[in-house]
């Protein structure tokens, strides 16, 4: 049995609320005309764009998500100190390189979060994701062991994202 897609006035309710509030804040007024126009935009924009979005997995484990965010913040702080030590030292000791990280996650949202996490951590920058979404190419400021870096990213970042998104 096939189900017919249903029409929802607010296909993305949180987006609508954010759009409405942003409109009022940008205009710095709650005049009736702006309330009506903001409400119209908050309904119309999500309706017009909802068909363009690909379904993505949601956050399934809030505690794991909080743990992941705290871990990333800690890693950013530690990496800042490590990069500072590298930058202060002689530049000829640095071994910059590109590394291809094989991906086990397939959805765009978790891949984007993984790439962003890698870029937020000083000393590494996500350079590209392959078209087939099987590889994340990362530039590393100082590569000492490629296999160790791949294992670190997969274990420390990708594995928790697979748990959070159940993918």
From TrEMBL:
Which InterPro entries does this one have?
A: Cation_antiport_E (IPR002758)
| Primary localization class, coarse | membrane
Q: Which GO terms describe its cellular component?
A: plasma membrane
Q: Say yes or no: keyword Ribosomal protein present.
A: no
Report how it sits in the membrane.
Multi-pass membrane protein
**What are the recorded GO MF terms, alphabetically?**
monoatomic cation transmembrane transporter activity
Keywords, comma-separated and alphabetical: Cell membrane, Membrane, Transmembrane, Transmembrane helix
Question: Could you tell me the superkingdom of the organism this chain comes from?
Answer: Bacteria
Q: Name one Pfam family in it.
A: MNHE
**Which ranges does the record mark as transmembrane?**
68-88
Keyword match Transcription regulation: no
List locations, semicolon-separated.
Answer: Cell membrane
Q: Which PANTHER family match?
A: NA(+)/H(+) ANTIPORTER SUBUNIT E1 (PTHR34584), NA(+)_H(+) ANTIPORTER SUBUNIT E1 (PTHR34584:SF1)
Give the similarity note.
Belongs to the CPA3 antiporters (TC 2.A.63) subunit E family.
Q: What is this protein called?
A: Multisubunit potassium/proton antiporter, PhaE subunit
């Amino acid at each position: 049995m096939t189900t017919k897609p249903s029409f929802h006035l607010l296909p993305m309710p949180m987006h609508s609320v954010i759009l409405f509030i942003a409109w009022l804040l940008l205009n710095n007024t709650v005049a009736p005309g702006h309330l009506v126009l903001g409400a119209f935009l908050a309904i119309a924009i999500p309706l017009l764009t909802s068909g363009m979005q690909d379904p993505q997995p949601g956050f399934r484990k809030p505690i794991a998500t909080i743990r992941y965010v705290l871990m990333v913040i800690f890693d950013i702080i530690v990496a800042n100190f490590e990069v500072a030590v590298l930058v202060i030292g002689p530049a000829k000791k640095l071994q910059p390189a590109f590394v291809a990280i094989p991906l086990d996650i397939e959805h765009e949202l978790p891949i984007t979060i993984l790439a962003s996490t890698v870029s937020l951590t000083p000393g590494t920058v996500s350079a590209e994701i392959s078209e087939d979404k099987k590889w994340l190419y990362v530039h590393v400021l100082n590569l000492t062991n490629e296999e160790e870096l791949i294992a670190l990213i997969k274990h420390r970042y990708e594995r928790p994202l697979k748990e959070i998104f159940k993918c």
